[in-house]
Amino acid sequence: MAPSQQEGPLSGVTVVALEQAVSAPLCTRVLCDLGARVIKVENPDGGDSARHIDDVVNGLAAHFVWTNRGKESVALDLKTEAGMAILHRLLDRADVLVSNLTPGTTAKLGIAPEDLTTRHPDLIAVEIDGYGQGGPLSHKRAYDLLVQAESGVCAITGHPGAPAKPGPPIADASTGLYTALSIVALLYAGERRGARGGAVAVSLFDTMTELMGYPLTYTRHSGQEPDPIGMSSPAVAPYGAYRTADGHTVVLGTINDREWQRLARELLDRPDLADDARFRTNPDRVEHRALLDAEIGAWCARHDLAHIQRRADETGIGNSRYNTPKDVLAHPHLAARDRWRTIDTPAGPVPALLPPPVISGYDPPMGAVPGLGEHTEAVLAELGVSEPEFRGDA
User: Fold this and answer.
1) Which of 1, 20, 141, 321 has the fewest Cβ atoms nearer than 10 Å?
2) pTM (2 decimals)?
């Protein structure tokens, strides 16, 4: 296939994506940001379901705009012989296939990893699913909220009696990132061995149970389940959010006894708290969290946010301001570091953040968000597919 126009770490790598919603699209967008060419194969009847979640981006869906920039959209009906024949011609030239279709779909289509080993031995076959294979939940549909609930994440988020789902789709996003990392590892291994190929399977459930590592380890060995405590941490104290005199919320955190001593003696000017046996070690402070939060909260309530943050910086105490999404859009730290770019979409240009990695000598391409089937004709021309072949008449 034609190489990416932007030379990057993955320039020359071609990825075919059969993807919906967030986990796989974010995985392949990460690869695209690193220079790979991503060909997104979509059903001509509506395409990726994420295209239709809302219409807030000048008529386009926010989820789709976020996860699909820089890709090429090819509309193929994979329920037809002609559509599947063209897909296999794409895979003949591709390095990676990424899919996150409903359970059993790739097997029905004959493109499960075990099928591809024979027909496309050099292809890295990647499947993202909800619960992994071989278990009682393997057949189930899985969405971000469902997996967060199943894996225990919601039980330690929110407040006692009021569990919550973390706002960002962390099951989808984390799974997408783990998958992208696995693909890069296999590409690297293939270069070293001089032979590509392999299979990767990543499930949302396995990803979230991995991220639950601390609470699962704690519960196994203590016999106790950590309570959800809002913006605090179950592991350390003090670590939480406090209202300020001018109506803002400041977040203060310590991670060891030395920092606690600085917070008590230098920030709060309370040597009595620093010497109090109830707060001497982190386990002591966690046990008496409510008393400690009341003291810190009372001090914060007497001071403005700017004063608290200035003094916290001076005394080496971690701190931040509680921001809303509107605050973050106007965040001076993003502006000062030139983190915003403009990308094209079928509905006109829109702002987008640069991807997190800052790679020396490389500017991410920040390509356009594709319209459904926008690149079908051009990609089929590369393959030498005629219109009769495409329509199944040949």
Assistant:
1) 141
2) 0.92
